[in-house]
Amino acid sequence: MECPASSAASVELNPVLHPLNWLLGNWESDIPGEGTFPTIKPFRYTEKLYFSHVGQPVINFMFNAFNAESKKPMHRECGFIRIQPGTNKVAFMIAQNSGLVEIEEGELTGNHLKLQTEKLARISFAKEPHVQQICRVFQLLPDGKLEQTVTMVTDNQPLSQHLHITYRRSS
Ligand code: HEM
C-alpha cells in the first residue's frame, strides 16, 4: 500500500536526510509484535510503518497498528522527523490517536536511533494512567529488518518495556 503522504518518486532526497536514508520507505511487521507492561495483559499486534519525504529536510511518517488476531485498527501515530544539519541529533514530532502529542529527541549512531521524550501533552480526557516518559529505539538489523523497541514510564509504573517488533520492507 502506498502512503498517502508519500513523495513523488522523482523528488530527490534532501542531503540533510542522507544519514536517515535507511529508514525511508514502507515497512510491515514480519511476525506479530509483542505488547507488554506490568499492569496489562500481554498482547500481539501487527504494524505498518510509512516513512516518506517531499524533498524537504523532513521525513513524514505514519505508523498504523492492528490487533494480530482480529486485524482491527489499534494504535496510530503520525508526524515528522528532522535531523539537525551536520549533527547526529534527531527529533520526532508525534501525534498519537490516544490523545497524546509528543516531541522525542535523541541520537543517531549509524543505523541505530535512540529517542526519548522531551515534551509531552495530551487531551484533557485522555485515558489514565498517563504515560510520562517514552524511550524508543529503532535499529536496522544485519539481515535488513527494522526493529522498534518502546519502553515507558506511567503515573504508577517505572520504566518498563511496552513494545517490541520487527518489520520487513514492503516497498
Ligand atoms: C509510543 C506509543 C505508545 C504509548 C505511549 C502507549 C501508552 C500506553 C499506556 C500509557 C497504556 C496503559 C498502561 C496501563 O494501563 O498501565 C497502554 C496500554 C496499552 N497499549 Fe499502548 N502505547 C503505545 C503504543 C501502543 C501500540 C503500538 C499498541 C499496539 C496495538 C498498543 C497497545 C496497547 C494495549 C492493547 C494496551 C492495554 C489496553 C489499553 O489500555 O488500551 N500501544 N499503552
Automatic annotation (TrEMBL):
Pfam families registered for this protein in UniProt: THAP4_heme-bd
Under CDD domains, the record lists: lipocalin_heme-bd-THAP4-like
Q: Which residues form a coiled coil?
A: none
THAP4-like heme-binding domain: from which residue to which, for each copy? 17-169
Q: Which InterPro entries match?
A: Calycin, Nitrobindin, THAP4-like_heme-bd
Q: What chemistry does it catalyse, as a reaction equation?
A: peroxynitrite = nitrate
Protein name from the UniProt record = THAP domain containing 4
Q: Specify the taxonomic lineage.
A: Eukaryota, Metazoa, Chordata, Craniata, Vertebrata
Q: Which gene encodes it?
A: THAP4
